[in-house]
Write a structure and sequence with these properties.
By secondary structure, the protein is an all-alpha fold. It has 3 helices and no strands.
């Protein structure tokens, strides 16, 4: 009788272990795998975002540098044109404002370093880049009061 009881007890414990293992295999392990996958995807997304922010920061810095270079080039070109205007007006020559403005824009396009020019053209396109250069010329001319003399 004790032997039958212990056999029954052993069979019952074995069945309980089998049930626990089946629950473990069918429910808990797949759920744990899903949690691990979600955690891994989050870590990968976080790493990608960090890399993209570095690239965006570098690109933004390059873009800001290109705009600063355009600004400096526009300053130089407009100052050169200012001296030309002073020279010609001292000689009594009449200057065509549109021609001077067009010449300033061409000079800026030619003097701007190729890397900055390429980045700005890529960002704005040719038409918007032309408008940007034109507005820089007008801005610099207004700052130097050249618009009254002949540039704009």
């Amino acid at each position: 009788m004790v032997s039958e009881l212990s056999d029954t007890l052993i069979k019952g414990v074995a069945e309980i272990i089998a049930i626990v293992l089946s629950v473990l295999v069918t429910v808990i392990i797949p759920y744990a795998v899903l949690l691990f996958r979600a955690w891994a995807k989050a870590k990968i997304a976080e790493a990608k975002a960090k890399v993209e922010s570095i690239e965006n920061t570098e690109l933004r810095e390059e873009f800001e540098s290109a705009l600063a270079r355009l600004d400096a080039t526009a300053d130089t070109v407009v100052a050169d044109i200012e001296s030309t205007i002073k020279k010609y007006t001292a000689e009594g020559k009449v200057l065509n404002p549109e021609k001077i403005k067009e010449q300033a824009e061409v000079r800026i396009r030619n003097r701007l370093d190729p890397a900055s020019k390429q980045l700005l053209l890529k960002r704005f396109g040719d038409e918007r880049f032309g408008k940007l250069v034109s507005s820089k010329v007008e801005q610099k001319a207004l700052r130097l009061n050249l618009h009254k003399k002949a540039i704009c």
